[in-house]
Amino acid sequence: MRRTRERYRVDLLELQAACEANYMRLMRLLPAMRNHPDTRRIAMSQGDRLLGVLVLTVTESCPYTTTVHISQQDCLPWLPVPQMDVRVYHDARMAEVIGAENARRFRGIYSYPNAQMHQPDEKNQLNLFLGEWLGHCLACGHELESVL
After folding, report:
1. Cα-based distances in Å from 55 to 1, 45, 91, 119
2. Which Pfam families does the entry link to (predicted)?
């Protein structure tokens, strides 16, 4: 007896909740991104060991949207360097991943298998990962240079 896998369905409430939470996290990390496009470097360490530096760079600023490039520098040598482009919608108070690694403009659902090797819920997974990444940065991150 052959069982067919149930087709993936987008949970819009979960996706919107993740994007709204990501907006709040980004606003805590870059509160003046709308008025003063800037770059912020946040160190993440464990004890005396530097694990990496999260770099948030505003690449585009418009009246209702901002695009932020997020990457990590000075990582552990065996760790792939994550990087994402995030579109921040200020009027809707949402932040959504629009690019990651070499891929851009993600669809809500992908058939599986596919040539790009995306998971059926790739867009949702990327937005959830962004939330975990920013949440970890808020919990464990600190300014790179000491403030005097």
Report:
1. 52, 14, 25, 27
2. DUF1249
pTM of the model: 0.82
Of 92, 28, 34, 42, residue with least CA distance to 67: 34
Other beta carbons within 10 angstroms of residue 56's beta carbon come to 20
Q: 142 by DSSP, 3-state: which?
A: strand
pLDDT tens profile 26-48: 999 998 888 877 889 998 887 78
CB 19 within 8 A of CB 26: no
Phi-psi region of 74 (alpha: psi -120 to 50; beta: other; left: phi over 0): left
Task: Please report, as a single letter, which amino acid is at residue 106.
Answer: F
